[in-house]
Amino acid sequence: MKDTPALPIDAVLPQLRRALAGDGNVVLQAPPGAGKTTRVPLALLAEPWLADRKIVMLEPRRLAARAAARYMAQALGEAVGDTVGYRVRLDTRVGPRTRIEVVTEGVLTRLLQADPELTGVGLVIFDEFHERSLQADLGLALCRETQQALREDLRLLVMSATMDAAPVAALLGNATVVASEGRAWPVDIRYAPPGDDDIPAHTVQVIRRALAEEAGSVLVFLPGVAEINRVSRRLQEAPAGDDVDVTPLYGDLSADQQERAILPTPAGRRKVVLATNIAETSLTIEGIRIVVDSGLARVARFEPRVAMTRLHTVAVSQAAAAQRCGRAGRLEPGVCYRLWSESRQRALAPFDIPEMLQADLAPLALELARWGVADPAALAWLDPPPSAAYGRARDLLEELGALDGTGRITAHGRRMAELAMHPRLAHMVLIAQALHRGALGCELAALLSERDPLSGRERGADLRARLDILRSSDTPLGDGGAAARAILRRVRKAAAQWQRQLKLAPPPDDGADLADAGLLLAFAYPDRIAQRRPGGDGRFLLAGGRGAWLPVSEPLAASDYLVAAHLDAGAREARIFLAAPVRREQLLAHFDEHIRDAAFIAWDSREQAVAARRERRLGQLVLTAERLEKPDPDRVAEALIQGVRDLGLAALPWTDTLRRWRQRVQFLHELDEAQWPDLSDRALLDGLDQWLAPFVGGMTRAGHLGRLDLAGALQSLLPWDRRHALDELAPTHITVPSGSRIPVDYSGETPVLAVRLQEMFGATETPRVASGRVPVLLHLLSPAGRPVQVTRDLASFWAGAYQDVKKDLKGRYPKHHWPDDPLQAEPTRRTKRRS
């Protein structure tokens, strides 16, 4: 091994060797920059217990895996692929002499599935385990079971800078914890919270400040590519100096572009590397001694309820902030500018949320089924898969035919699992192969496995445009097309690899197969088959029941049917980003087993009538509909009742007599709920199925309600004995002293009797109802019929207020009686002259 400078990890390597030789499992804690990624595998190669077997080290990212392998190979004075090699998606460099394999992106899982004993492997290292990727959690669970059931001699080493070691050590059978103290170099942390500037403007301001205050190059952490591009444009519009190069670093760049960001700058020059969290761990960028951290990251969170993923920009955890800060002290003392306050730093979450708790678990569920595990509880996890998300994943796999009804993997599921892609896409590719469209299926799968190569361009949402570009070698991509070209190269490589694996013929030269792109997508995303809603405003209904939309300017917005491949979950409706059209005839021909043929009987609010159709439905989509000749009468009645519920009680044929009858019953209900039914609006609407449904036979439209026997329906709510008691307890009229029968108004909170004052002469008691329990509210009227007094105490009125009323009205109504003593006067409904 070449001479290399001492690193903090060197001090604990003897302890690490002893622990692995004795206990077998170890958790290694070492701060960023300690050298664990590149020092530890090399230091263990000659251990007797390894016995010339391999070390497999899992890295969370392709860039870090390649960089770690290259650095270790250089330390040995060898080329990558000799003693040290790597396996990442679409790129493998290993040889017959390789003893250290750095792997990522599910490679470890595939090795385990192919050989559960991991023959020839003596040690598995999980590097940067604090990131808690889904593949790392799964790999550790499977390796632990292999160790316990098949390979007691297999060693497991979990390494991290910022992880809580105790739970991992317990998971590994109380493994030894080895800790390395101190960074390679100290880092000075400076807090620079934004003022009124937006984030890109403030980031540029701090970058300029850092370049002015400190020597060396700068690594800037930003949440995503959009922010990287905005900051890059601002720096290029007003360069920070003639000796400064601005270089992006994110996953969609080509390997050569990523290498340019990592390698040293020429003598006399500095660089500003604008990176996503791809640069957080296991990566030394030459010349960096300054970090500018936005404190933000973009994460994808899967929502099981809608089976969609939404991107969120979130604050980083304290652990991630420490990792980012550590990038500044890898090679010499450094400085970290944090674009937030010290108080906000204390409020950050301690650790990142494990991917297991917020990811689509369909790939995990398929891997477990292939492993032979029906219940994930059979394995040891730091965080077990959430039941809701895992249940949704199992449902999807059953729908795709990957699992049977008992949760066991099917032959189709095994073929799906052999393809290194999401189960949705694997199912699509296998169906495409059966339909002689396998090459197209592989291209679609490759495109959908990568970032959209035309993202942010005026290319629309049509996935067929991407297929055209994929098949063309000279399509202009305009400014900034380097990243798009890198994506397209990876897409072509992946598609070609799968085509070779499945022994497929190339696609036709004339592009005739592109018309089937939507159909193939439908096999992958049956819940995202979309039907255009009426109105022509770009709104669609998904087969899963959710709404989705496209801008009206999109040509695809006019499609009757399409399949959405990429869309955001959205708050109310999902925004479609990538889709392809599909014809109804294709759906009817290929999705027969998913199509339900059923009678649809429901209230049509626009027609105000019961709609009765025989429909063929794909999920929530109505593919065909025809009139139902003899609909079920009970279901018609149910639908009409729903129509009444929608229209409200006012749609029923009320008469004044019936309204007053209802008011009398409701008055008594308020007095005695146990004896009298509730006839309030809410109660009647809630009980329509009981009291109204028996009376609507043969009716199908709102117009038919006019012939409804509403009185009979309402009176059915009243027991027979209560009908007789109604007139006694809540009489329709009260006979007053003049002999007149005056109607009682029960519409308010209390019964009201409106009677001319002269008709009450001689009466000393206020009339009562409900067997004398409730006095009516008297509205004593003037000769013109206007209330002159409202009272429940008639005797008090005669004794007091009457004299004032008499003075006020006698002059205006001289023809009417105004006796001095109303208690001795004869009640009358006549004037003096008529009397």
List keywords for this structure.
835 residues, Rossmann fold, 34% helix, 20% strand, elongated
Folded structure, characterized:
The protein is α/β, with parallel strands linked by helices and 835 residues long. The protein has 7 domains: 172 residues, 3-Layer(aba) Sandwich (Rossmann fold), CATH 3.40.50.300; 171 residues, 3-Layer(aba) Sandwich (Rossmann fold), CATH 3.40.50.300; 59 residues; 103 residues, no CATH class; 103 residues, no CATH class; 81 residues, no CATH class; 80 residues, no CATH class. It is 34% helix and 20% strand. The strands form 7 sheets. The protein has an 8-stranded mixed β-sheet, with helices on both faces. Helix 2 packs across helix 3. 42% of the residues are buried. The model has no long low-confidence stretch (mean pLDDT 90).
Our count of domains comes out at 7
Name the overall outline: elongated
CATH superfamily of the largest domain: P-loop containing nucleotide triphosphate hydrolases
How large is the radius of gyration?
Answer: 40 Å
N/C terminus separation? 133 Å
The average pLDDT score comes to 90
For the biggest sheet, the summary is: 8 strands, mixed
And the CATH topology of the largest domain?
Answer: Rossmann fold
- What is the SS-derived class? alpha/beta
Instruction: Enumerate the spans where pLDDT stays under 50 for 5 or more consecutive residues.
Output: none
- Strand segment tally: 31
If strands are numbered along the chain, what order do they take across the biggest sheet? 4-3-5-2-6-7-1-8
CATH architectural category of the largest domain: 3-Layer(aba) Sandwich
How many separate helices? 28
Q: What's the CATH class label of the largest domain?
A: Alpha Beta
Please report which band the strand proportion falls in: under 5%, 5-15%, 15-25%, 25-35%, 35-45% or over 45%. 15-25%
Helix content: 25-40%
